[in-house]
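Before the break, one more example. Copy the sequence into your notebook; we will annotate it together after we see the structure.
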Amino acid sequence: MHSLLGRGVTSQQIEQLAQASVGQKVAAGHALMNEGDRPSGLVFLLQGGVEIFKHGPDGQRQSLAKIDAPTLLGEMSLITDRPTSATVIALTECELQLLTRAQFQRLIAADSIAAYQLVMTIAGVLAERLAKLDRKIIELTGHWDL
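Here is what the structure looks like once it is written out:
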């Protein structure tokens, strides 16, 4: 988890997040989350690789990305209660920690520094994904018209 949260996070804060989350293993070929399902929470992908799919306008499943650990998945589930926006399938056996929204809210209510560190990490992840999307829009359209 430490490599996901970056510098400045103490061992005590890592331990607090680990205690609030549940360890899981997912076999290759199985889903970590399914598009349209109720969100399960934030996934700390500690080992393994996944592929992310989304259904296109024609109903066909399209691959968006392949991602290797360490990374965060499902970060929006801590912020909104919307259905999961994509399907994530394990390409290899995956080891993860799942932090539910309820557990996250308990940490926030307790003024946990670890929870605030996690919010900063999520903000960084979202900012990076938005920057990639911006670059993709420019690449596909040849101009910036937002």
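The beta strands are 22-26, 31-33, 42-47, 49-55, 61-68, 71-73, 87-90, 94-99. The two ends are 36 Å apart (CA to CA). Try to locate both features in your own notes.
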